[in-house]
Design a protein that fits this description.
Elements (H helix, E strand, L loop, with lengths): L3 H9 L17 E4 L3 E2 L6 H17 L4 E2 L6 E17 L5 E16 L7 E12 L4 H24 L4
Length: 162
């Protein structure tokens, strides 16, 4: 009999979470996303494509927004302003044991429905890796994680409505 109560409680209680973001204003129907160009001193060509693809995917495929080339309710433009590798942990012999890849994106977001929600802001994300590995060995995997994090930050700051 004691086993029935916990099972009943498990079956009758449910909690639902969604990590897809907030609700976009119902008056907002269209978005224009201008390709972000790479203006960083160190250029990794795949970064530009990965970022533009991920931002479009998030805004078009995961919302009800339709992409347009003019007169959009929302507009995204900007550039990649920084791409750098820094040592983060130094061993006793003076060499780095960990390194950090950092990417910074400058975003100009214009909300033509609610102009007060527009922003002009930089977003930065990084991933650490062992300094015993070369950047070439880890770069693609790090870029995937960094780009996903940057797009999450941009989404939450602009249309996430948290």
């Amino acid at each position: 009999m004691l086993y029935i109560i916990p099972i009943f409680m498990l079956v009758s209680c449910s909690i639902s979470y969604s990590f897809k973001g907030g609700k976009i204003d119902e008056n907002i129907k269209t978005v224009k996303i201008t390709d972000f160009l790479n203006q960083a001193q160190l250029v990794y060509p795949s970064l530009t494509q990965a970022f533009n693809r991920e931002l479009r995917s998030r805004m078009i495929e995961q919302t009800s927004l339709k992409e347009t080339s003019n007169n959009a309710d929302l507009e995204f433009e900007g550039e990649i302003t920084d791409y750098r590798v820094d040592g983060t942990a130094v061993r006793e012999d003076g060499y780095a044991s960990m390194a950090k890849l950092t990417v910074t994106i400058k975003v100009r977001y214009t909300n033509n429905v609610k102009p007060e929600d527009s922003i002009d802001q930089s977003f930065s994300s990084f991933e650490e890796f062992s300094a015993t590995r070369t950047l070439d060995e880890v770069q693609d995997g790090l870029i995937t994680k960094i780009v996903a994090n940057l797009v999450d930050m941009i989404y939450n700051e602009t249309v996430g409505n948290w």
